[in-house]
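Worked Example 4.2. Consider the chain below.
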Amino acid sequence: TNINNTFYTGLGQDFNLNFTLWNAAMGYKFLKNKAGELKVSSFDVLRQNNSVSRNITSTYIEDVRTRVLQRYYMMTFTYTLRNFR
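Applying the procedure from the previous section yields the following structure tokens:
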């Protein structure tokens, strides 16, 4: 598990954001010498992920909120090759 808190400040009124990004994973090792691992991961558990940017030119200042991938799950299988020759 890892948790990151992000705080955007100094932008336009609706763009000052505070959100927490929490990712979690659980795995199980099996097979001979625990060479195989099956893992289930969850990204953005709290569905708070945001992307905000500011563009500044000589004529205007623009604050932009972009859609980002929010909560998703992933299952992975990893096999470790030992004694590879």
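The chain has a mean pLDDT of 89. Strands lie at 2-7, 18-30, 36-43, 51-56, 61-66, 72-79. Compare this with Example 4.1 before moving on.
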